[in-house]
Amino acid sequence: MNKIFEAALSINEPWYIRDIEFDPDKKQLDLYIDFNRGSTFKVNEPGYDGSYKVYDTVDKTWRHLNFFQHECYLHCRTPRIKYDKNKIKQIDPPWSGKSPGFTLLLEALVMKLCAHMPVNTVCGVINENKNKIWRMLEKYVDMAREHEDFSDMKVVGMDETSRAKGHDYVTLFVDLKERRTTFVTKGKGHETVKAFADDLSAHSGSPDQISDVSCDMSPAFIKGVKKTLPGAKITFDKFHILKLINTAVDQVRREEAVTQPLLKKTRYIFLKNERNLTKSQMETLEELQLSKLRIKSVRALRIRESFQDIYHAESQDAFSLLLNKWYFWATHSRLEPIIKVAKTIKSHWDGILEWKRSRINNGILEGLNSIVQAAKAKARGFSTFKNFRIIIFLTTGKLKFNLVNQYVG
Question: How many CA atoms lie within 13 A of 205 on its CB side?
């Protein structure tokens, strides 16, 4: 029986299973591991290449994968070696995980589960303390990030999100080429860009290498990029611009609906693109368009649709020409919300024109953000920034956890 478990656990010399205890009432399997008498162990530190005899031992226990429905624990008389006059080192057995009390295989399972389930749910499944699991996840994220190499990163997207409803914001930085989150920091001010630049430098990168940044029209983000990433050209995210225009269209509709009964219960008709309207919504829109009432909301809708068409321009010159024509139309529309958003766009003109060259936007970041938001919703928010950061990297960071633990796929 001992040999069977040694083979199942890949336990090789000098280690061996000394004893097995199985308690069906406690639903627990305990395996007691020892090492052969006279064994020597390597230090694996610079300047110490030899093997050393055991100085003394310490009894340690690790939680392992369940044996069917029974919890399994490995107990080992763990050796310590004295490899210099005053240097004593504890030898970690090959099954020992990166966190105290877990085996590598159990940690690999936890990592897999936590990428798809709330941590509290995982704790219930494996019957473990949540603080212990969070500490393990944090260690894996931090160790995997030590292997990060950002020397080739050139195009970055940045956006903020909240860690819980009504709570503090965090800013995400995404490598738009690799489609993954590379940095997360507290806040949404200009100092977040400085924190990103410092992290970039710490991982074989340089602020000077960033050629393009996609972000919204936040003054803080603009200030941070100009101050910290000197070689980066800003492209304002077109989805954010369309959101501002949509808000203006909705404001026109709400103001007009006070005196125009036809506009009641039509909000989503004006927020959707025409191709996404239902048959009933399309019929209602056609009625509004054919109306002799010259409805302002329909005019605002056409101005928004015209802005979207600008992005199909075939050249930089055509893009610029269409944008100028749109601005003239919008500012002469006599629709105050539309005029206001048009002036906002004018004050960010260069960053909007930049899109035609860079062709970047935060669509990838929005997709990653939706994954983060789904995880947040399942967990009903996160009580700390630390835990939120862990989940962001776990779900959208594409970290190479296999470099930390060979069993993590």
Answer: 25
Cβ atoms of residues 296 and 336 within 8 Å = no
Chain center to CA of 13: 42
Helix or strand or coil: residue 4? helix
Task: Specify the long-range contacts of residues 189-194, CB closer than 8 Å, at least 24 apart.
Answer: 189/220, 189/224, 190/220, 190/221, 190/223, 190/224, 190/227, 191/224, 192/158, 192/220, 192/221, 192/224, 193/158, 193/221, 193/224, 193/225, 193/227, 193/228, 193/229, 194/224, 194/227, 194/228
Global pTM? 0.86
Taking the C-alpha atoms of residue 61 and residue 59, their distance in angstroms, rounded to an integer, is 7
Q: Which residues contact 385 (CB under 8 A, 6 or more apart)?
A: 163, 168, 170, 186
User: Residue 388: CA atoms inside 13 Å, Cβ hemisphere, count?
Assistant: 29
Residue type, 309: D
Q: For residues 214 and 355, what is the distance between their CA atoms, to the nearest angstrom?
A: 9
**DSSP-assigned beta bridge partners for residue 15:** 35
Q: Digits of tens for pLDDT over the chain (409 positions)?
A: 888 888 888 899 999 999 999 999 999 999 999 999 999 998 877 777 788 899 999 999 999 999 888 999 999 999 999 887 778 889 999 999 999 999 999 999 999 999 999 999 999 999 999 999 999 999 999 999 999 999 999 999 999 988 766 668 899 999 999 999 999 999 999 999 999 999 999 999 999 999 999 999 999 999 999 999 999 999 998 989 999 999 999 999 989 988 888 888 888 788 788 788 788 888 787 777 777 678 899 899 999 999 999 999 999 999 999 999 999 999 999 999 999 999 999 999 999 999 999 999 888 888 888 888 888 888 777 878 999 999 999 999 999 999 999 999 7
Which residues are CB-contacts of 127 (< 8 A; sequence separation ≥ 6)? 71
- What angle separates helix 296-310 from helix 279-290, to the nearest 10 degrees? 110
